[in-house]
Design goal:
Blueprint (H helix, E strand, L loop, with lengths): L3 H23 L7 H8 L3 H7 L3 H21 L7 H14 L1 H9 L4 H13 L14 H23 L7 H17 L2
Helix pairs in contact: 1-2, 4-7, 5-9, 7-8
Length: 186
């Protein structure tokens, strides 16, 4: 359970994130300063540096927080996910965050997600019980997760970079059609 200080610190990080996103809508990432983020969040600059070393670490915080939320959502599932249900869950999750992701993607700031997610996926490979997971050695697991996370993340970047992206169901069905065709032609 989080202490009062931890809750205040987390709330401050949320405020810094919100302020950063507001500034990112107004100006180029390179021109945003820590002072501006702190002022917009109505917090002290020193408070920012208690949580983050810089803007990139703020982005990494959001990446890790989002991925922790995604993993929590997966852990809540009562039974192993089918590929279709897993894809739907994945695309629905990012759809709910589409405005933030759109802003990060068009500002070329979403690559942090891929690196963080791939490392977490390799580390957590055996925590999930989907039928498609193989029992592989560590090197095989790295190849599998690098392939899966890379492909899915590039899809998210292409999809949510659009001003009017398709609904998650459309993307999920596209993947299912391709997977069915791959299996049929195997």
């Amino acid at each position: 359970m989080a202490t009062g200080k931890q809750k205040i610190a987390e709330r401050s990080r949320e405020w810094f994130w919100k302020a950063f996103l507001e500034l990112l809508q107004e100006k180029d990432y390179q021109k945003i300063t820590i002072t501006e983020i702190a002022q917009k969040a109505q917090l002290d600059r020193r408070t920012f540096y208690r949580s983050f070393k810089g803007k990139n670490e703020l982005i990494n915080w959001y990446c890790k927080k989002s991925l922790a939320e995604y993993h929590a959502l997966i852990y809540q599932q009562k039974q192993p996910l089918s590929v279709q249900k897993g894809l739907k869950l994945f695309f629905d999750f990012w759809w709910e965050r589409r405005k933030t992701m759109h802003l990060l993607i068009i500002n070329d700031l979403s690559n942090n997600f891929l690196n963080i997610w791939t490392q977490a996926a390799i580390k957590n490979y055996y925590f999930f019980n989907e039928s498609w997971r193989i029992k592989g050695d560590p090197n095989q697991v790295k190849y599998i997760e690098t392939y899966i996370t890379g492909g899915l993340w590039q899809t998210v970047n292409f999809w949510l970079a659009k001003d009017d992206p398709e609904k998650p169901e459309v993307i999920t069905q596209t993947f299912i059609k391709v997977l069915d065709a791959l299996i049929a032609n195997y």
